[in-house]
């Protein structure tokens, strides 16, 4: 079942994000990976900053989360994670479809250039990589990330930007 995440879900969300983010270890630049990948304070900040999280619940257990953040003319997919033990079961696709159905805006997704599995997932679900020069413009316009992350990231879009 897909449902809106609430404040009471923060601990489970924190655990899901940090479990799933272990996939980045040794893949993304070493200077960008740390544990926990997202602190509780960072998660709280993201929620206060307008990231609305949806969760996939199975047998009463939250096992995947995906956020969306309205940025005016576009929406951003933020923090899409499924517990390691429950990957490859369609949870991410179901969450992404659920979110796509809730906005008419173009959706942008930023992810690590080295995260081939993430890029493949999004392209299989109708997203396309934007050109490198446009990527930089979009990351600067809609995200608040350091230059090093801009250098090592990609942006995908479902409607072209």
UniProtKB/TrEMBL annotation:
* Gene3D superfamilies linked: 3.40.630.30
For this protein, the record's Pfam families field holds:
Acetyltransf_10
**Which InterPro entries does the annotation name?**
Acyl_CoA_acyltransferase, GNAT_dom
Location of the N-acetyltransferase domain: 1-148
- This protein's source sits in the domain of life called Bacteria
Protein name stated in the entry: GNAT family acetyltransferase
What organism is listed for this UniProt entry?
Answer: Paenibacillus helianthi
Q: What is the lineage of its organism?
A: Bacteria, Bacillati, Bacillota, Bacilli, Bacillales
